[in-house]
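Handoff note, outgoing to incoming analyst
You'll be picking up this chain. Sequence as last confirmed:
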Amino acid sequence: MNRVLLQIFLLLAVIPIMLVIGWGFLILGPIICFGFAMNAYRYNNEKELYFWLIIGVIAFIISLFVLGIF
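Most recent structure output, in case you need it:
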């Protein structure tokens, strides 16, 4: 098989995998941020709690925009 053709085929095969991983991070990002916020709440660290809550809300809004809900 031609080397250029093989590289194009491998690039096309990697694109769906990258999309799946990207969507996974998009969905799991806010959940992870809120998990960090719960951990900060457990240790009575209010600054870190509010930081992770704000980051989680921003990540949630961005994911809603990307998914086409907003």
